[in-house]
Amino acid sequence: MAAHAPVTDVPRSLSAKFVGSFAYLTVKDRLPTILTKVIDTIHRNKNKFFEEHGEEGVQAEKRTISLLSKLRNELQTDKPIIELEDGMADTDLWNQYLQKQQALLDKQEAPSWFKSPWLYVECYMYRRIQESLNLNPPVSDFDVFKEAKTQSYFDSQQAIKAICTHLHGLLEGVEGLPEGQLQGHFLQLLQVSLWGNRCDLSISAGKENAQKCSPIDSLVELKPFILVDDSSMVWSTLMKSNMSGEKPQVRVDFILDNAGFELVTDLVLADFLVSSGLAREICFHGKSIPWFVSDTTRKDFDWTIKQTLATNHRWVSWCGTRWQKYIKDGVWSFHNHLFWTLPHEFCDMAADAPDLHNFLQQTHLILFKGDLNYRKLTCDRAWDHTVPFQRALRGFEPAPLCSLRTLKANVQVGLPPGRGEDLTAQEPDWMTGGRFAVVQFFCPSNEQQNPHRK
After folding, report:
1. Are the C-beta atoms of 427 and 433 separated by less than 8 Å?
2. Which of 50, 106, 166, 398 could bond 360 through an S-S bridge, CB–CB 3.0 to 4.6 Å?
3. Taking Cα atoms as reference points, which of 265, 336, 270 lies closest to residue 304?
4. Where is pLDDT greater, at 316 or 1?
5. Alpha-carbon gap, residue 331 to 161, rounded angstroms
6. How many whole angstroms separate alpha carbon 160 and alpha carbon 166?
């Protein structure tokens, strides 16, 4: 495990043990609701399991529901966290993390749902959902969230058509554009990707949460709700990277969040980066298992591109054709390292996933999408709102990085003095309602950046 600064150097972890907090309400109300929906989804697919696996599929469905019902009871009654038993590639890592949590407590006390860090127990719930399936092989590859993700994608069709049509219009004249105009288009699509993050099914507990209208039309009215806007620094970093060397091979990494409309906005931004010459390579990073209801897996990524290809809308299918070719040509690639579905804070990455950390050191810009990534970047702690973003990163500085996040959890750093208090007075739920957003950037010094980056 990674060695951290003394605990006195950082604030406490957010936790459901603080009654009335957003973490408490999440563990008390939202997580059991999600589990209930998962149980219902598996039950409704009983006939599908029978058709595919016969009686063995039906028995697997019953056993899975039994395990999930047990999990829900453990959560609601604040039982101790238990070790995983499914023997997957990450099982030992999860059990080691449980031991680490136990070591932080008095020997008479065990880590439990309402007493442990919120980030840990919320991630643990989704991993236990997957374990319930893993222990029943006939249904182990069933994505319990696929129906919700699919519905969200189709509910956002008008917005998807609008953004794909907009991209076509931009790219028709992108060659030879003056730098100022190119910057304007980039900043616009960066904001579209930012606000796409509002479509989060884990926050709505799986209820409808789709983008209905053109995101372009909303940008002007949404701009005042961006609390920190470091977009110009992101642009400067891309410009600087493109001016280094005779033929710069600029790489941008997207640490993805939600499938559906948000993923389409990320693909549109990535296409613009490549088509405009701002980047030569895009690496997308998603989840290795279904995660936080709507997070993007490899299957979601591939499915989305196939859907855009198959549509009868001219410019959406045009985008799908381009995106498929990027993948075939190796310009775009998808990665799903196990670390993204561990409960670890990102400051642990260098010690606990050195291969991933080294890979990220080779890039020129990392775009971290969404709320969970922000929580892991900032270690999901009760920081004062004025604490600099860099300090909250606690040494996680593999490359220039930017968080594109709409606020849906009560952690936010990097605000000017008094801003957090003013927001709390005006809108008590400003950190959790998804109405506000940040484009928050940090660039390590030249000495810290990897000298082998192309």
Report:
1. yes
2. 398
3. 265
4. 316
5. 24
6. 10
Specify the DSSP element, H or E, that contains 366: strand 365-369
- Is 336 within 8 Å of 287 (Cβ atoms)? yes
Locus of tokens 């959902």: 129
Mean pLDDT of 365-388: 98
Residue where the block lists tokens 């400003």: 430
Report the alpha-carbon distance of residue 251 to residue 268 in Å, rounded: 16
Helix axes 215-222 and 179-196, enclosed angle (nearest 10): 90
- Return the H-helix or E-strand segment holding 250: none
CA distances (Å), 198 to each of 185, 210, 243, 438, in order? 21, 9, 34, 12
What is the pLDDT averaged over residues 244-262? 89
Q: Which residue has the tokens 């030879």?
A: 176
Helices (H), 104-178: 118-134, 146-155, 157-172
Name residues whose C-beta falls within 8 Å of residue 222's C-beta, 6 or more positions apart in sequence: 191, 195, 437
Encoding tokens for residue 253? Answer: 């990494």
Contact 310, 301 (CB under 8 A): no
Residues 6+ apart with CB under 8 A from 357: 349, 350, 398
pLDDT band, residue 215 (cuts 50/70/90): confident
Q: Which two tokens stand for residue 454?
A: 């192309």
Q: For 283, which DSSP code?
A: E
- Cα 13 to Cα 104, 142, 345, 420: the distances in Å are 12, 33, 11, 19
Cα 308 to Cα 157, 193, 198, 314, distances in angstroms: 10, 18, 21, 10
CA-nearest of 246, 242, 257 to 364 is 242
Token digits of residue 263: 């993923």
